């Protein structure tokens, strides 16, 4: 699973401030030791928690935050709305496909 920035920062703190082992940190963080070493390496090499030269992973998002907010407001206003109705309204109002 993807680690939040907060957790990555905490991993660095556990290692440097509390001198915990990678195995102990992995157990606390709920991830592999390899992930711990990757976060620590990125911090050491780039002084940040992720590699600034890495390409973004995965497919680009189809919906932006405004689209997601609109969908959320539709569902909040009408909890029994059907998916096809959401798609239709999203397409009409937000001009998405």
Automatic annotation (TrEMBL):
Residues 6-41 form the Transposase IS30-like HTH domain. It comes from the Eukaryota. SUPFAM superfamilies: Homeodomain-like. This is Transposase IS30-like HTH domain-containing protein.
């Amino acid at each position: 699973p993807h680690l939040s920035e907060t957790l990555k920062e905490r991993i660095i703190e556990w290692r440097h401030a509390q001198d915990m082992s990678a195995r102990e940190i992995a157990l606390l963080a709920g991830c592999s030791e390899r992930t711990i070493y990757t976060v620590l390496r990125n911090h050491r090499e780039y002084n940040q928690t992720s590699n600034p030269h890495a390409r973004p992973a995965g497919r680009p998002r189809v919906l932006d935050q405004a689209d997601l907010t609109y969908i959320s407001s539709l569902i909040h206003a009408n909890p029994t709305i059907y998916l096809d109705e959401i798609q239709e309204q999203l397409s009409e109002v937000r001009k998405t496909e």
